[in-house]
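REVIEWER CHECKLIST
Item 1: Sequence provided? yes
Item 2: Single chain? yes
Item 3: Sequence as submitted:
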Amino acid sequence: MKKNLKGIIMVLPAKLFLILWCAFSIFALVWVFLSSLKTNKEFFANVWGIAESPQFSNYENVIFNYHMGQYFLNSIIVVGISVFLILLISTPAAYVLSRFMFPLKNFLFRFIVLGLGVPLQMLLIPLFFMLLNIQLLNSFAGLVLAYVAISLPFTIFLMSGFFASLPSEMEEAASVDGCSSIRTFFTIMLPLGMPAVAAAAIFNTIELMNELMLVKAFITDESKYTLPVGLYGLQGSMQYSGDWVSLFSGFVVSIFPLIVIYIIMSRRIIEGITVGAVKG
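Item 4: Structure as written out by the authors:
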């Protein structure tokens, strides 16, 4: 009884902190959404109030006049292609590294995971000159190439843990039936590994949708900007225009799709992390 009470007392502060953090995050999101429906006059008159008449024209202004619609489309294209290529490379690589024995396997895995410890700022200049030499600066292709390169270490590390936790009996049965390693992967192991694939896809989507540094460094054509850069530019223009409700509308346009994706796929994320953590 005393041990249980001690455990509850130790866990209580952490739970209280998480509850307060979640409450604050929800409050901030709701406040931003409600503020985006006001006029600027209503916002400055009563910061915490509710709009008398919702101004959905703020979203029309942000999407068309501030080109957030174009930036959102650019983000969808770049991130969609990047995530597809990341999964295309990482999934078989993680499977091989976790299920097969071959020379230098441990060295190769550690070398890949070492990429998790390299700050993105250290890669900025080498990536810039690399893309310059192959003439891919200021292009979606160059940005996709950079995104794939920086995302592979985390994705392979995440999916390797999951594949290592899968039982080997079905692989052995498929081998007895004469299935090749490639067929076993596509017909048995890949379907079992879909929670990890989904989790990796969601994590990379959220991360790359919010990426700002590489776009600012590699893209100079404004028509090719992605959503974070567009939102950053919108925030910078507020010091001259004072159109804060449009800025809040831009925030909503930026975060709403990610929130919807996370809510729909949250169970997949939890499965991909918890099952992959059972055995490394």
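Item 5: Key structural point noted by reviewer: The radius of gyration is 23 Å.
Item 6: Recommendation: ____
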